[in-house]
Design goal:
This protein is of the alpha/beta class and 274 residues long. Helices cover 33% and strands 18% of the residues. The protein has nine helices and eleven strands. The radius of gyration is 24 Å and the shape is elongated.
């Protein structure tokens, strides 16, 4: 094990001079770097400066060098809380946010909502940048809480949260629920957000509860057919929605693709049978 560790250190050490040459801007359009392969042979690689536009999670401003897995040498990532607040403010000044506020303002609910839970919204921090699309979705959880005057902090749950995610969520006033607490806490007075949740959320809701407000993935349409394919909705899900919910159009956006908002028509039944 010690020999393996020493070999990793040796390989890593050969990268440092090359990285410094990138940081010093050896050439305007790129620079040569020497890297040692696992076969102990040196390779010289010319790395070009990318000319493509800013990616979704790329730090704003300046040129960016990349080697391998998004290694950024000239623009280090912003502190996660700062990045979260910037992306949050960015979405809240957008046209899409205005449309979301209009959709929420059009909703009338004949019952009380006392908590909001976001399930499976995904990790916020990735290598080690804050994921812009996820910030918008987490911000929506907070907006639901605000618009319906919910006193408790917004709750979130995802099985793959890292310590960075948990730190950021705590700093931005979210309460993390451990699995499966979020699912067990779903009930009638709940607002539920499950955007691309990656679990059978619809089946769980059908069998266990009737949240007052739901925002989740809508039906998938078959582009090769004039009929709905219902790839997302089982017949039981369709019946539940038709009988017990009002469907409200949710504004389309690349971060909220194919979402639908459901508002329960009345108080849920005392007993729910799957």
């Amino acid at each position: 094990m010690g020999a393996i560790f020493q070999e990793i250190q040796n390989i890593y050490g050969t990268r440092i001079p090359a990285l410094k040459r990138f940081q010093n801007g050896e050439r305007n359009n790129g620079a040569n770097g020497t890297f040692k392969g696992i076969n102990d042979i040196d390779y010289e690689v010319f790395v070009k400066l990318p000319i493509s536009g800013r990616r979704e999670n790329e730090h704003i401003g300046g040129a960016t060098w990349r080697i391998g897995e998004e290694l950024d040498l000239t623009n280090p990532p912003m502190p996660s809380e700062e990045a979260f607040n910037i992306y949050k403010a960015q979405w809240k000044t957008s046209e899409h946010f205005e449309k979301v506020q209009e959709a929420l303002a059009s909703v009338e609910i004949p019952f009380t909502v006392n908590k909001v839970i976001g399930i499976g919204l995904g990790a916020l921090v990735l290598r080690p940048r804050v994921f812009e699309r996820c910030v918008y979705q987490y911000t929506l959880v907070s907006i639901i809480r605000q618009n319906f005057s919910i006193s408790s902090n917004p709750f979130v749950q995802h099985p793959m949260y890292t310590h960075r995610d948990r730190y950021l969520l705590d700093a931005t006033k979210f309460t993390v629920l451990e699995s499966p607490s979020a699912l067990l806490d779903l009930d009638g007075p709940t607002g539920l957000l499950g955007i691309h949740a990656g679990l059978p959320l619809k089946g769980i809701v059908i069998d266990t509860c009737r949240p007052g407000i739901i925002i989740w993935d809508g039906e998938v349409f078959n582009a090769n057919s004039h009929f709905r394919s219902y790839l997302s909705y089982s017949p039981r899900a369709r019946k539940m929605i038709e009988d017990e919910y009002h469907e409200v159009a949710f504004p389309s956006h690349e971060s909220f693709n194919n979402q639908v908002m459901l508002i329960r028509k009345s108080d849920p039944p005392a007993s729910i049978h799957g």
